[in-house]
Specification:
about 120 residues, mainly alpha, 4 helices, about 70% helix, globular
Length: about 120
């Protein structure tokens, strides 16, 4: 989805449209799995997806990320995150690592609700 030459300012509408498209897919994935982020988690996820859209369209690189930081993330959250990253078609696997944290935290909401 990127030719690597766009700037964020010049293409903010495209970034927003891509982010909205991806957030709609995430909403479907969450609904299928009864994952319910709270309002703050939703806002943080939306901000992250918008940044991913920016990187996808502008070619801006992601800073180096240490894989060891994500060892405790469940396979389910990592797989969901990779599905979302694959929607962009041009982002590195490290994006899935970062995105998986949002999914893992949101999944905790359901677990906590079940124990109440």
């Amino acid at each position: 989805m990127s030719n690597g030459t766009l700037t964020a300012t010049e293409h903010s509408e495209e970034i927003q449209a891509l982010a909205e498209q991806v957030m709609a897919k995430i909403a479907r994935l969450f609904a299928e799995r009864a994952i319910m982020p709270d309002a703050v988690q939703q806002q943080m996820l939306t901000s992250h997806v918008r940044a991913m859209a920016l990187r996808s369209l502008t070619g801006e690189p992601l800073p180096e990320v240490d894989a060891e930081l994500f060892e405790d993330i469940s396979a389910e959250s990592m797989a969901l995150a990779q599905q979302v990253v694959d929607l962009f078609g041009n982002l590195p696997k490290e994006e899935a690592w970062l995105l998986s944290v949002h999914f893992e935290v949101a999944k905790e909401n359901a677990r906590c609700a079940q124990t109440r």
